[in-house]
Amino acid sequence: MIKRVKALNMNEFVSRHDPSLLLIIEKEFPGTRCVGGKYSAEGHTITLYQEDIEIQCQRSLGSLDRLEEYTWIILTHEIGHALDKELTVLSEELWSTGNPKILYQIEVNAWDIASN
Q1: Residue 100, Cβ density class (10 Å: 0-12 exposed, 13-18 middle, ≥19 buried)
Q2: pLDDT per residue as tens digits for the range 30-66
Q3: Long-range contacts of the stretch 94-100 (C-beta < 8 A, 24+)
Q4: Which of 53, 60, 99, 100 has its CA 20 to 30 A from that of 7?
């Protein structure tokens, strides 16, 4: 579970990258998919979903021993989306064409930005 202290540190981290970006932490994703985090351009917000992150961590790593690190990876990836200057154009193209290569590019961009 993401503790309040960690959430405060995460908020500081987000603010250093973009002071106008808002971080929201919720219990679970409101759907049937297992979504650890989501960036919303409309509200310029990142939402992390605690229980979904725990499920992903357990499935990917076999335990929750590295949950904190896994959560930071999810957060950093979502910051990558938020800072992607091509996201709007790529999202519009994805919506109009449904081309999975565009979705791939959106995700690659986020990981590339996150790694810097």
Answers
A1: exposed
A2: 989 999 999 999 999 999 999 999 999 999 999 999 9
A3: none
A4: 60
